[in-house]
Design a protein that fits this description.
The chain contains five helices and five strands. It has 151 residues and is an alpha/beta fold. A five-stranded mixed β-sheet has the order 3-2-1-4-5, with helices on both faces. Helix 1 (40-53) crosses helix 2 (72-88) and helix 3 (100-110) crosses helix 5 (122-150). The longest helix has 29 residues, at 122-150.
Length: 151
């Protein structure tokens, strides 16, 4: 059982996958497309990854505005998520992705990755942050439930 994390952008989709124990997120790849609205090949590649990694859930970053409102980008993300649900038969969970790209950029800068090389991996790193946030959340919820049972 693994979870797939996606950072869905206008021209790229960063992809991360959890380990089998649902503890950590690892970057897999960045899927690129030439046109924002040409999603068939992107969805097909995600379907391949779902099969390859035996994915049971997909987590998509939800690009809310800083004031917590939802704009056009959120609508496009949800439409893509709905398409993935239909194509894969898997549940798609939306996870707040605010500042994940900023955090990914910071990590790459601190790691000494040159500016021209960051673009190739930033979405994959952002997908890791999205997925790791979700994994930490479900682990916290599980530990909370165990604590409640003990009381």
């Amino acid at each position: 059982m693994r979870i797939l994390g996606l950072d869905f952008g206008s021209r790229t989709v960063g992809v991360a996958v959890s380990d089998g124990l649902l503890l950590t997120a690892q970057g897999v790849e960045t899927i690129e497309r030439k046109d924002e609205n040409k999603l068939r090949k992107t969805a097909a590649r995600i379907e391949e990854l779902v099969k390859e990694y035996e994915i049971t859930t997909i987590v998509m970053g939800l690009p809310k505005n800083m004031n917590n409102t939802e704009g056009e980008r959120v609508e496009k993300t949800k439409a893509f998520g709905e398409m993935l649900e239909r194509r894969t038969g898997l549940p798609v969970v939306y996870w707040d992705e605010r500042l994940t790209t900023v955090a990914a950029e910071q990590v790459l800068m601190e790691s000494g990755v040159r500016r021209e090389n960051r673009k190739a991996v930033i979405d994959k790193i952002a997908a890791c942050f999205i997925l790791q946030g979700y994994l930490d959340h479900i682990r916290f919820r599980q530990s909370e439930a165990v604590q409640t049972d003990k009381e």
